[in-house]
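Lab meeting, item 3. Inverse folding demo.
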């Protein structure tokens, strides 16, 4: 799966590429402007293209017209900090339109929309005598408990017959906080430091604040800054 990103801002390209890597896409091609995007698209024939709209020399809208002339079926997603270009973008048969800064969950939705990301992967969980298949993107926090892993959703808890190491290898959207805990990256929103100067993760949709190890603190901070 090849994905082309075109943006004249290096940090914006790096951030989007990093999020795509988190979702399991490592064949990311980067272009610094619209002209380069057209050239790289014709060379690599990507499966989906993310175009910034406001770029010097050749805008994302102009690049899209040139790309579509040669590859009319390639999905194009426009990315911009402004929404006034939305109508023109969809006139060019844009498949989606993302506002910066792009959130990880919104990026996943866009990839699903253009058909390159399947419906959310599911994990089999247990609760009492019952077994359920729950989308991994609904799972917020994973805590190692004896021989099982306890997974926390917004309003429920389940048990997984697996290990954190296996989960971390299988699902790139999960981030390790310490040796006994993983969190879903899209639910991580801050860090709380308690009276003993120990760091804890602040998570969306749940009151649980799992501890962050000193070893992982820099990694968590970098994730929040990305």
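The presenter then showed the designed sequence:
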């Amino acid at each position: 799966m090849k994905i082309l990103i075109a943006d004249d801002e290096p940090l914006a390209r790096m951030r989007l590429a990093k999020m795509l890597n988190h979702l399991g896409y490592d064949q990311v091609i980067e272009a610094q402007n619209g002209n380069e995007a057209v050239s790289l698209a014709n060379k690599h024939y990507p499966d989906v293209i993310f175009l910034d709209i406001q770029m010097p020399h050749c805008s994302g809208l102009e690049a899209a017209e040139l790309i579509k002339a040669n590859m009319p079926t390639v999905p194009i997603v426009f990315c911009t900090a402004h929404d006034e270009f939305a109508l023109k973008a969809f006139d060019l048969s844009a498949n989606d339109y993302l506002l910066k800064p792009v959130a990880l969950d919104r990026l996943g939705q866009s990839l699903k929309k253009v058909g390159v990301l399947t419906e959310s992967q599911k994990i089999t969980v247990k609760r009492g005598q019952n077994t359920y298949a729950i989308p991994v993107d609904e799972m917020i926090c994973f805590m190692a408990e004896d021989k099982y892993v306890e997974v926390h959703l917004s309003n429920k808890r389940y048990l997984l017959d697996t290990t954190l190491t296996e989960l971390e290898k299988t699902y790139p959207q999960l981030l390790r906080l310490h040796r006994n805990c993983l969190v879903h990256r899209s639910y991580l929103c801050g860090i709380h430091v308690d009276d003993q100067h120990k760091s804890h993760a602040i998570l969306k949709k749940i009151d649980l604040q799992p501890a962050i190890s000193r070893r992982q603190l820099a990694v968590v901070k970098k994730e929040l800054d990305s």
